[in-house]
Amino acid sequence: MRELVPTIVLSALAALPVQAQPLEIIGYSGYLGEWELTATVTATAPPRKAYSGPLTMRHVGLCTQDGPEEKTGEMQLELSASRMTATLSVAGVECRYSGLLSDSYTGTMTCPDKEAVPLRIWVR
Question: Could you tell me if residue 83 is left (phi over 0), alpha (psi between -120 and 50 degrees) or otherwise beta?
């Protein structure tokens, strides 16, 4: 019976769902990288690689006079082997992003009534 107890405990532990670790998102948007993007996202729809969480965008360009402008919102993203798609919602504006993986995800962010801008994202 004593030999059976460790087997039962290990079987029970294996049956528990694995809690997904949050992902740290870091990025730079704009032609000169003047907006810094940070987010911490958690899995939303296993087994798909879908994540969501709070987002902060900070203007780090040279034109800031009273300190960096900061905007907060929500980020939802999906990852595949070589692509990231995301929706960024900031101040009631919903922007779309699509990027391909190289050393980072490189693509463009498109917001309503605005020109698409480059956005480079790293995932940790």
Answer: beta
Containing 14, the helix (H) or strand (E) segment is helix 4-15
**Does some domain include residue 8?**
no
Q: Tell me the β-bridge partners of 103.
A: none
Q: What is the mean pLDDT of each run of 10 residues along the chain (124 residues)?
A: 44 47 96 95 89 96 76 96 96 96 96 96 95
> What pLDDT, on the 0 to 100 scale, is given for residue 20?
67
In 1-124, which ranges are E strands?
23-29, 35-43, 50-59, 70-79, 83-90, 93-101, 105-110, 117-123
Domain holding 96: CATH number?
2.40.128.120
Q: 54 lies in a domain? A: yes
Q: Which domain holds residue 101?
A: 20-123
pLDDT number for residue 6: 41
Dist CA 2 CA 99 (whole Å): 54
Domain assignment of residue 2, yes or no: no
